[in-house]
Structures are given as structure tokens and as C-alpha cells.
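Structure record:
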Amino acid sequence: CNFLMNNAGIGRGGGALTDIKTFKQTIGVNTYGPIHGCLSFIPKMKESKEAGIIVNTGSKQGITMPPGNLVYNVSKAALKAYTEGLEFELDKERRESDGALKAALLVPGWVNTSIMLKNERSKHLEAGNEEKFDPTSVYFSEEKPAAGAWMPNQVVDFMVSELNDNKFYIICPDNDVTREVDNLKMTWTMQDITEDRPPLSRWHPDYKDKYQKFMDENKPKTEEADTDKK
């Protein structure tokens, strides 16, 4: 079985009026990076006639859209849409012809990676003061793991297990947030549309208490208080 893993990500963020350079850089890596990978390798994977799996790494922020990091959210939301469409097309080929490929969307939780470390170092480099960058100032990384976050190898093990179960949406928990809580957060987000609420109502002053009541009434009793991290 051939395996294509498109894991591209930078943490540059900002709001709706962030400069276009940051938009292009973030989307160029987080969205176009995996798309370039698919365009480069999927035709060759099809030509081989062998079974294959394509995994694109998304983000919970591309689903629940927490404010404060809009540029990043946009890049990962676009990749989610692309990967869903890709799998729809591949599934049609599997059903109607001799297609042997399938796609999946990996959605990590909180992970002890170096994305924040590299982002902060890059900012200092661009400002011409890299020598002032202190790696210990970064909240978490692989070398400075946060207790609530998974290590990368845990994400890989979980991904493999979910792929073996033929899952498309690989929604990873972490040490702080369970899948059940993630499901509730995603449900609330989607219901902003169906319930005609303001966008991102979870963080809106008129709905924050209603959101917390929804979480309290629906999450398992064993869950701790919602942290609003993702």
C-alpha cells in the first residue's frame, strides 16, 4: 500500500485585515503545500494501480474557527474542504471503476510540536534580532512538552489505528480534551448556521453562557470544565 502524508504547517496568524504577505505565506504552506503534494503524487499513485492512502493534516481550528488566528483558520478550513472533495472523487472511482486510493483528514489536538518555536524564531529573524530569541520563552515544544498535549508519536499511533478502521475524519483527542468534548464544540459551531446565531457565537458575549450551558448539559459527567482551547 502506497502512503502519501501531506503534513505542512506554519503558525502565522492574524485577523481579517492582516497584511497580504502573511495571508499568502500561511495559505501557501498550509493549504497549497498539501495540494501540491496531491497534484504531484496522486497521478503516479493512480498509474501504479496499487492501493494507496493520502492523509492531509488539518486542524481543529479549521473547523471550530476560534478568533484571534483567522489567517491560520482560513488555511486549514480550505484544506478540509479540499480533502473532503478529494475523498468524494476517490470514493466514486472506487465504487464505479478500478480506483484503489482513499484520502483521510488528520485533525490533531494539542500536540507538543515545534511549530510555535519555529514561528517565534522566524519572527525574530525577520526583525533582525534572532540573537535575542529565547527558546525557553515558548510555551511548549517537543523539548518542553506541555502536560495537556500529546507527543507526536501518540498522534501517529492514533492515526494508524483510525486508518485501519477506515476512518476519514481522524479527530485526535489529547490529554486535556476528549473526542466527546470535541464533538460538542463542532456541533455548536455548525449550529451557528442552522440556529441562525452570529458567527463564532461561542465567543460572543450574548451566547457565551448559552454555550457553556450546552456543554455542561451534554458532555459526560466525568469531563472537566471546558477549556475553550480549540
